[in-house]
């Protein structure tokens, strides 16, 4: 049942190219993103005052990527929140707003509660869900199913990848409907998204490098993931994955915030994983890397293969295949998952069933 892989997690990491293809290709019509078959009317969607994206854990991290690309391309304001925070903070949401909830299982209690809350105030609701017929899918006004197939490993991998694929489809179509990108740019981005299964496949070939990096992390007590913009969103997911299955403490930090307190944690040999795929931000991130390096950090840099990195900036570099900058989270996700996976394996942990956790969190 594990298809020759040692763990479900590794199998599911390798299923990502197919999962993305199955999720994305039926929704590209004549080179343009098209969610109308999912019952999504973009002309209506573009007129909502405010978009909320609410979810838990990894699904919330997918929402963070959604926020960046929707705001960047469609120029609509997006608030992302954790379901268990959103529901209790008397949120300002009205019938003029759109609530997007993201959930692999479709059964997460807090996410479900947020969906109900949004419906009560008359907001439009859209669920991005993997499990067909699940509670969240049944109650939302609109559903976009991700087609990852069953995800068995507690640590979510392929579900995250298809959730972000849907965020891209949404952002591209919304941006075009909103007139903030033209047809040519929309087709270009959509074509790149259509190519992502191949790019992800290429990134899976980095597994030996990732396992080597894991061997450098396995004895660490604590580490940091840093990035800016989309790379920060991705760092959050990388960090969660590592904590969840390797039991090594880690934190993700917006690179520019380090010097406001956290940099004091850096001691000789502490690993710092820096994600730097966004050209406009690379210089800034590199200067943050130099700051941690000067304090003794062991730096692992994840960047695309076009970026020139000066001598001595990083101890180890993971080079990603190139794609449109906006889509780089899809290229960086698998290496981050693999680093977590191999670290967990090296520690001899129960990779697919980490302690204290359940696959689906149906309690509040
Ligand atoms: O089923 P859901 O997507 O609603 O689950 C949300 C989180 O519980 C889930 O993503 C969790 O964070 C994962 N175990 C992380 O790998």
Strand percentage lies at 15-25%
The average pLDDT score comes to 96
Over the alpha carbons, how many angstroms does the gyration radius reach? 20 Å
List the ligand species. 5-amino-5-deoxy-1-O-phosphono-D-mannitol
Biggest sheet character: 5 strands, parallel
Structural class, from secondary structure content? alpha/beta
Characterize the overall form. globular
Which H/E pattern describes the elements? HHEEHEHEHEHEHEHHHEHEEHEEH
- Considering DSSP H and I runs of 4 or more, what fraction of the residues is helical? 40-55%
Spatial sequence of strands, sheet with the most strands:
4-3-5-6-7
Distance between the termini: 32 Å
Number of strands: 12
Low-confidence stretches: none
Oligomer: single chain
Helical region count? 13
Structure explained in plain terms:
There is one protein chain. By secondary structure, the chain is α/β, with parallel strands linked by helices. The chain contains 13 helices and 12 strands. The chain has helices at 8-14, 16-24, 42-45, 57-74, 83-86, 109-120, 135-139, 158-178, 183-204, 207-217, 230-246, 279-294, 328-346; strands spanning 28-29, 32-33, 51-55, 78-82, 98-103, 124-129, 142-145, 222-227, 249-254, 271-276, 298-304, 316-320. A 5-stranded parallel beta sheet has the order 4-3-5-6-7, with helices on both faces. Helix 2 (16-24) packs parallel to helix 8 (158-178) and helix 8 runs antiparallel to helix 9 (183-204). It binds 5-amino-5-deoxy-1-O-phosphono-D-mannitol. 5-amino-5-deoxy-1-O-phosphono-D-mannitol is lined by residues 56-59, 103-105, 108, 111, 154-156, 240, 244, 360-361. It catalyses: D-fructose 6-phosphate + L-glutamine = D-glucosamine 6-phosphate + L-glutamate. GO terms for molecular function: glutamine-fructose-6-phosphate transaminase (isomerizing) activity. The active site is at residue 359.
